Amino acid sequence: MPLPNIPGYNRLTKTHKYSAAGIAAAGAAAIAFAVVPSGDAGAKTTAQDLPNKPVALTSQKADAQAHHEALAKQSALAAKQAKDEAAKKAAAKQAAEEAAEKKAAEQAAAKKAAEAKAAKERAAKQAASRSATRIETVAAEKKTYPDNLDGWIRESLDIMKKKGIPGSYEGIHRNIIRESGGNPRAINNWDINAQNGVPSKGLLQVIAPTFQAYHVEGTPWDAYDPVANITAACNYAADRYGSMDNVNGPY
Q1: Would the keyword Acyltransferase be found if you checked this record's keyword annotation (predicted)?
Q2: Which CATH number fits domain 149-246: 1.10.530.10, 1.25.10.10, 3.30.460.80, 3.40.50.150?
Q3: 20 to 30 Å CA-CA from 101: which of 116, 132, 225, 245?
Q4: Domain boundaries in the chain?
Q5: 171-230 tens-digit pLDDT
């Protein structure tokens, strides 16, 4: 082994020289051991690599923590998006239900309005019909007849029809001509009735008791009134003979 090149080395004693050489050799061996550890000839670990191992572990922990935090943020974001989507769907469903309820209410209101309108129209038609009927009734009630034998018979027949009293124009006319000749003021002062104080009066020669018993409501209480006389006489004839048409002589 060559002697180290140390300044002043040649001036040292022999003992000192050997000591310095031993120290140098030990240092070189320590350096060689540090560069190539025993039992791992293929490893190339240097002194600079040893302090970096704790730094590498710390970096891995930081990366793992960052990855965990990123996953947590993604999970939270996904949860928020799912919640927002659910809220959006719920709002849309509620809006659709409210729209359906509003439409149903509008349809119900329209149907009710249509029914009310139809009912009002029916009521108006019914009122118009009743009014027309009343007008016709009033017109019938106010029907005018000529003030003569023909008019008296026709008016009596209309009243008899309402009261259900039978008789015909021909039957009434025939008996009037025989009894009074068509004179509404005719009176019989010579027969048995006259002798008994109840003379026959009017177109169909009706005595007072018979007139009062068979008087028809709606006609005057006057035996000389043409219509009242005809109607009372026909009412009596219907009760006794079935109809004035069946009378062909004194009755």
Answers
A1: no
A2: 1.10.530.10
A3: 116
A4: 1-50, 61-142, 149-246
A5: 999 999 999 999 999 999 999 999 999 999 999 999 999 999 999 999 999 999 999 999
